[in-house]
Amino acid sequence: MSDVNKTIQKWHASFKKGTDFDSWGQLVEAIDEYQILARQLQKEVQSTNSSDFTEEQKKTLGRIATCLEMRSASLQCTQSKEEFKLEDLKKLETIIKNILTYNKEFPFDVQPVPLRKILAPGEEENLELEEEEDAAAGAGSTEAFPPRAPASQGTLLPRLPSEPGMTLLTIKIEKIGLKDAGQCIDPYMTISVKDLNGVDLNPVQDTPVATRKEDTYIHFSVDVEIQRHVEKLPKGAAIFFEFKHYKPKKRFTSTKCFAFMEMDEIKPGPIVIELYKKPTDFKRKKLQLLTKKPLYLHLHQTLHKDS
């Protein structure tokens, strides 16, 4: 069997697995499977090196990815007016299985999913304010460092060179507790260090996308190297952790909640910090807890001192 046929077989198996979960009412598992397959199809559509599929076939794969995203969105929002039904999705099984020979018109009037848009800080809150009437956006400047487009592998930076008498801080992000942890798509964490006015003191970093979800926890298990010696952090500075996830219905990456750690909390060992409602308030003046439930961000700190 050729490599392309193996790929198609793998896609078909993933599609069947997702629709089976959907049929059985295992919605979290169905959403995960649909999202994994949608990303695989999008990767193929956006690949410039692949000659396995014609441009027309790539368009069809892109439309299938759109339908997977739509079904996933319907499962996450039961009151959605744009509901995409399971029986509609099942009509695509024959197409994905026979993509190399399929030459009929696509059964639904949908377009391939565009490249995912990562919004700059503040933009996502503005979009969501229209629907959710959130509180005023948190003020903070990001001018000191250029904007980044987070990739699935993250943008974490290596540890700084040691200096005599100076201390470096490594923070392991272990896990975050959320009541709807299993439904968060492509979750990752953005880490920044801000002064009292919300101005960046360090380059902003993103973790890789988390891959493990368990009950009410999303596990990261990644080390973040703070890009400034502890002794050089000004009084009143804080380290912020913004939890972000992808919203297929709105097609952008959104901040769900945030947490922060102040300078007097820097000490070796584990620490558990509270989660706050978005938008991120870098000035820490109007903080609202995300939930009364005992759900937190779990971290572990390691201090490196060069004597």
UniProtKB/TrEMBL annotation:
Keyword vocabulary terms for this entry: Developmental protein
Domain of life: Eukaryota
General function of this protein: Acts as a ventralizing factor during embryogenesis. Inhibits axin-mediated JNK activation by binding axin and disrupting axin homodimerization. This in turn antagonizes a Wnt/beta-catenin-independent dorsalization pathway activated by AXIN/JNK-signaling.
UniProt-annotated stretches for the region Disordered: 125-161
Domain C2 Aida-type: 157-304
Biased composition (Acidic residues): 125-135
Name this polypeptide is given: Axin interactor, dorsalization associated
GO cellular component, as recorded: membrane
An MF annotation (GO) of this entry: phosphatidylinositol binding
Similarity section: Belongs to the AIDA family.
A biological process term (GO) from this entry: determination of ventral identity
Residues annotated as transmembrane: none
